[in-house]
Amino acid sequence: MKIVEQVQELRSTLSEYRQAGLSVGFVPTMGNLHAGHLALVDAAHEKCDKVVVSIFVNPMQFAADEDFDTYPITPAEDEKALIEHNTALLYRPQRQDIFLSDLSKQTRVEVPELSEILCGLSRPHFFSGVATVVNTLFNRVQPDIAYFGKKDYQQFLVIRKMIKDLAMNLKVVGIETVRLNNGLAMSSRNNYLSGQEINQAAGLYRVLQHVARICQNNSHTYNEIEGLGIRELKEIGFAIDYLSIRRQSDLRTPERTDQNLIVLAAVWLGKTRLIDNLEFSLASS
């Protein structure tokens, strides 16, 4: 596996791939890699000749009171895992290589509407920070296909819309969430949880499953079902950011005629914020 930090070396290596007629799959990450990230790498191998992974902890997507300074960084373990999964190229830029000016003066990419709901309400800085840096990485790597985990479902839709609106010449693929045996979605922030909290946190997915089943039984309004889900989460011990039933396609509030739905939630367990979702479909009437 080749490791590069400078954009010139990145472009030189990618140029060699292109001249050889090789396709490029890209997996942007913030490191501290786990089985969820590696599933993206494996998926990229299925469709692409070369797989490029980036590791960059993006300060633009963190607010001042969030965990940027304590975000887990594990370079040696990440390199070992990527080598084991046959990654061709690891791009590990430094902050000054991504942001050519002070963050307050940096050009930003905004994806309206999708960025302003759900996680965007409590983290209004987040999706602009993600879109801006992912756009920069896309411009540098110029992949054929980019891979994102669907645990961050809203982020996946934001990136997909950015690609469409800016007429980018690449495809984006969402990969299903990888979970622990107890159902908890894999996340780097799980490192913040104690053993007891890991077991407690698994209750989030169980509630999402229950919410989906109630929706499929068609016996309550969506507002009533959301209220039930929130009560169950509180009983487990979560502090609630949101739990919401939305359309899969655009995260708008569903009508009764909509069949492909998703329930999304963001909660706090102690000082750790967790997100998860579950896609489901209703029987046609």
Question: Which key features would you list for this structure?
Answer:
285 residues, alpha/beta, Rossmann fold, Pantoate--beta-alanine Ligase, Chain: A,domain 2, six-stranded parallel sheet, three-stranded antiparallel sheet, globular
Describe this structure as you would to a colleague.
By secondary structure, the protein is of the alpha/beta class. It folds into 2 domains: 2-175, Rossmann fold (3-Layer(aba) Sandwich), CATH 3.40.50; 188-275, Pantoate-beta-alanine ligase, C-terminal domain (Pantoate--beta-alanine Ligase, Chain: A,domain 2). 39% of the residues lie in helices and 20% in strands. The chain is built from 10 helices and 9 strands. The chain has helices spanning 7-19, 35-47, 75-84, 95-98, 119-122, 126-141, 153-165, 195-201, 203-217, 222-236, and strands spanning 2-4, 24-29, 50-55, 89-91, 145-149, 171-175, 239-247, 260-269, 272-281. Strands 1-4-3-2-5-6 form a 6-stranded parallel beta sheet, with helices on both faces.
